[in-house]
Amino acid sequence: MDCMGSGRERVKYMFGAMFKGATFFDIFLWNVALAAVWCVVAFIACIKLPSTFFDFEKKRYQAMKWEKNGRWYKDHLHIQQWKDRLPQHIAKDGFSKTHLTNMSLDYLDEFIMETCRGEWLHLADCMLAVLLLLINPWPLALLFAALPCIGNLPFAVIQRYNRFRLLQVRKKLLHDLRRAEERQAASVVA
């Protein structure tokens, strides 16, 4: 081990000198500045990452067994009672959570991919909590670390829940398309 100790100790040493004797207001301003930079970098990364990074078939975006394809959020978090009260960000030509505007497979796949992108961004912003825990004096570390989680976890949960619902719509659409193709093939043969 080097003379500085663990990674946490190095970070504490680096920021400890900065926060030593600092007022609450100074510490607060540093945390706001760090949060702003973190969120901007995460947002830019989210935009620049290829769509394939947000493929809903990747393991990180798949339903966990305990989620029961979104049912857990409905039964335990009562998500329908609060999800529509939270603000939403709709980029230019983006997707509204209030209603589907198209029922094509391409549209649904794009919408589902955007839920993966949104979930990734909100969870990336939650990771700021780790840095804030490391650099801040106790008990302020707990307060500042809790804020990005409180501000982002509900949105990540909504993205997951909506994705599970959209996947059910997609599954039904694929079933209907297959049935239509089978009927069309049968009518051509007859």
Instruction: Round the Cα radius of gyration to an integer and report it.
Output: 22 Å
Work out the count of structural domains: 1
How would you spell out the order of helices and strands?
HHHHHH
> Averaging pLDDT over every residue, what do you get?
87
Low-confidence stretches: none
Number of helices: 6
Tell me the fraction of residues in β-strands, as a range. under 5%
Salient structural properties:
190 residues; 6 helices; 65% helix
Q: In short, what is this structure?
A:
The chain has helices spanning 7-19, 24-48, 71-76, 105-126, 128-135, 140-189.
What does this protein look like?
The protein is mainly alpha-helical and 190 residues long. The chain has one domain (11-189). It has helices at 7-19, 24-48, 71-76, 105-126, 128-135, 140-189. It is elongated, with a radius of gyration of 22 Å. The N and C termini lie far apart (79 Å).
Please render the helix and strand layout as text.
Blueprint: H1 7-19, H2 24-48, H3 71-76, H4 105-126, H5 128-135, H6 140-189
Helix pairs in contact: 2-4, 4-6, 5-6
